[in-house]
Amino acid sequence: MLGWDMGAALDMGRALGISPLAVAELLPVIETIMVRKTNEQINKEGGDG
Q: What InterPro entries does the annotation carry (predicted)?
């Protein structure tokens, strides 16, 4: 199981001057890519991903 710290993502967006509403809109897309890339890396390393 893998979890993402969405509070940290919102804080990072805030630090970059991005509105929390915009960050909330983008998070699902970003999370999808992060999960895909994480699974690719696990599979590349021979894990059961």
A: DUF7697
| Average pLDDT of the residues in 25-48 | 88
Listed residue (5, 2, 22, 4) closest to 13, CA to CA: 22
CA separation for the pair 23, 40 (Å, rounded):
25
Do residues 34 and 4 make contact, with C-beta atoms less than 8 angstroms apart?
Answer: yes
Predicted TM-score (pTM) of the model is 0.59
For tokens 């893998």, name the residue.
2
Cβ-proximal residues to 5 (8 Å cutoff; 6+ apart), any chain: none
Helix locations, 1-49, DSSP H: 6-15, 20-44
